[in-house]
Amino acid sequence: MRRARANHSIVPDYREMLLDKKREVIASLGAKYQAVAHSGRMSEEDQAQFSIDEFITLRLNHLDYQQLKLVDEALDRLSAGDYGVCLACDEPIPVKRLQAVPWAKHCVSCQEALAPAPVEDASFREMISHMAVR
Ligand SMILES: [Zn+2]
User: Fold this and answer.
1) Domain spans of the chain?
2) 92 alpha carbon to ligand 1 midpoint, in Å?
3) How far apart are CA 28 and CA 31, in angstroms?
4) pTM score > 0.85 for this model?
5) pLDDT tens digit string along 17-68?
6) 7, 20, 32, 73: least CB-packed within 10 angstroms?
7) Residue 65 Cα to ligand 1 middle (Å)
8) 32 alpha carbon, distance to own chain's centre
């Protein structure tokens, strides 16, 4: 029964995975907006805390938007038929990687060569710890 769509059998259901992720990110964004919108009256202490929370929320929203963009780009590539190929070296991205990260644009080695993410994360965490300590 599961082989009913024989013509799609080679490709794992990346579109469904991507759409699931998209729904998840949009839901997460919505929840954060609600949290900010509903945080009305607070004590001064809470407000100091809130600016940090707000900063984190904005930052996280930024990450969500980046995620959303990555997912949308992957969906575009699926539609265009060039999904699953590394944008840097044109080599196929391993299925294992795509199943873990369906929105991956690059193979692991290109991603590692390109990604400034760990440094950025560290400085972000450092900034937060400075803000929290005062
Ligand atoms: Zn590559």
Assistant:
1) 11-133
2) 8
3) 5
4) no
5) 999 999 999 888 877 767 766 666 556 666 666 677 777 777 878 888 899 9
6) 7
7) 24
8) 15
pLDDT digits (tens, 9 = 90+) for 97-134: 999 999 999 999 999 898 765 444 555 556 656 665 54
Could you list the beta-strand ranges (E) of the chain.
none
CA of 63 to the centre of ligand 1 (A): 23
What per-residue string of b and e applies to 89-109 under the rule 16 or more CB within 10 Å gives b?
Answer: eeeebeeebbeebbbbbbbee
What residues sit around ligand 1, an ion, with C-beta below 5 angstroms? Answer: 86, 88-89, 107, 110
Give the Å distance between the CA of 104 and the centre of ligand 1: 11
Residue 94's nearest CA partner among 109, 114, 81 is: 109
CA of 118 to the centre of ligand 1 (A): 19
> Which residues are CB-contacts of 94 (< 8 A; sequence separation ≥ 6)?
107, 108
103 CA distance to ligand 1 centroid (A)? 14
